[in-house]
Design a protein that fits this description.
96 residues; alpha+beta; Alpha-Beta Plaits; four-stranded antiparallel sheet; 3 helices; 4 strands; 35% helix; globular
Length: 96
């Protein structure tokens, strides 16, 4: 199992229509083959400046690698991520 996570902060004002539209677009990533246990998360702690998170799991390395080249993911990155994310931290895990 591989867990792909990303914490991020958007350029949009909190509670704005643009923020909601970005999060709605992110939710469409669940349709990429191999994605399971997809979650959109709101950061509540005070230890970093990130606001949101995404988390998903893949059963195999091939599914994980395929996610990044899938047209839905590539379109999301091109149409939303590159211009709407101010900062992010990506961490990918496997079980010990």
């Amino acid at each position: 199992m591989i867990r792909h996570t990303v914490a991020f902060r958007l350029v949009h004002p909190a509670g704005s229509a643009e923020e909601a539209a970005f999060l709605d677009a992110a939710a469409e990533l669940v349709a990429v083959p191999g994605v399971r246990d997809f979650e959109r998360l709101r950061q509540i702690g005070a230890k970093n400046d990130f606001t949101f998170g995404l988390s998903m799991e893949f059963d195999t390395q091939a599914e994980y690698e395929g996610y990044f080249t899938h047209p839905l993911h590539e379109a999301f990155v091109r149409e939303h991520w590159q211009s709407e994310v101010a900062d992010f931290l990506e961490i990918d895990y496997t079980l010990l």
